[in-house]
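Table S2 (text version). Query chain:
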Amino acid sequence: MKTYYILISLLIGLFWGVSPIIQKHLLKKFDKFSLMLFFSTIYFCLLLSTSAFYHKNIMKDLRLLNNWDTLLIIVYVFFTIFLSNLLILHLLTTHDSYIVSAIIEGSAPLFTLLLVYLFFEEKITLIGVLGVLLIVLGIVCIAMNDATFRIEEFLGVR
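Corresponding C-alpha cell output:
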C-alpha cells in the first residue's frame, strides 16, 4: 500500500512539476486571464465528458448538497482555483518556474499542518513537524538561489 501511495504521489508531483513550465512558456505569448479561461474551458469540457460515467453519484450528491457545503465549495473555488492560479501566473511572469513551484508547493504543508491542528485536531507528531520544518528550510534555500532574493528583505531587516 505504501508503494502505491508513493508512486501515485510521485506521479502527481510530476504533473505539478510540469505545470509551471508549461504555464511560463504560454505566458510568453498569452495574457494570464486568457490562459485561465483556456485552461478552465478545457477542464470543464473534460469534466463534462467524464460526468457520464459518474452521473448517478453526481445526482446523489446534488441531493445531499446544503447551504454550508455550497459556501465551502464557493470559497474553495475562489481561493484555490481562481485566486491561487491568478497569483501563480502573475509570479511566473517575473520569476523562474522552479522557484515559484518550490515555494508554492513547499509552503503548503506548513499551512496544512497548522490549520488541521487548529481546526480539525488531527494528530501531529514531532517527526511530522520536523519534516515540515525541513521543507520550509528547503524553500528558504531555493528562494535564496534567486538572484533577486535579499536575506535582509526575507528577515524584515533593513
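Notes on Table S2: The chain has two domains: 1-94, 97-158. The two ends are 50 Å apart (CA to CA).
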